[in-house]
Amino acid sequence: MFRFLVNASLRSRLIILMVAVACVGYGLVVQRELPTDIFPDLNKGLVTIMTEAYGLAPEEVESLITYPIELVMAGADGMTRVRSTSTTGLSIIYVEFDWDVDVYRARQIVTERLNVGSERMPPGFQPVLMPVSSYMGEILLTAITGEGMDPMKIREIADWVVAPRLRAIAGVSRVVPIGGLVREYHVIPDLLRLEHFGITLQDIEEAVASFGSNTGGGVVDQSAQEFLIRNLGRTTSLEDLRNVAIGIRGGQPVLLYQVANISFVPKQRRGDAGFQGS
Question: So where does this one cross the membrane (predicted)?
């Protein structure tokens, strides 16, 4: 076959030369219209689902969260592969789609299936779709330091001042503060005092859950004017939490500090971050 092609080409030299010149000319014309990109888009449709499950071991995360989500993702339109990672308190699932599937359409498909599969998951766990990012993306590490400052105060500056401003920058897909100490309210009930006042742990839980929130009371008309009724309860003061009423005994309110010890403590950490060895 190869010998036949060589002999035919030698017998028709002029035709072969004309075809070659035509191909070269067509290539030069098409080259002028081809788009050029130093960093072409190599992103395949990828949707990342992250679910935090504080306190669960990897086995429970796999069976209670990861596996049910994988079941509902199976057979999604355009989906090619599902990968997952289950660690202590965290489930991460990667749903990959074909190259021709738009990433925003893929996210819509995943969201619809998550809504259907939420019934299979235990209550209290909320899967979250991670922002759209690129395989060609970059990660910038920035440190915030303060000599002599409380690590909890530094973390609050990172969470509530620096991170929101970074998220407002065009092209930033995600900002993840790490390190420092996350401030938490720490309420330790005293069982003897609970028994003395006849207070249950459920009473304390309900009082703490409703602490620090504003509520509305509608409006009232007076003197041809409409006045808005508001219950201003939002606060971050530790003293306000101590004085929360959790029940009434003998006609007198029982305050939280009477049956529990309240303080600010850092949240339990798994991992840390440092800067220049500190």
Answer: 12-29
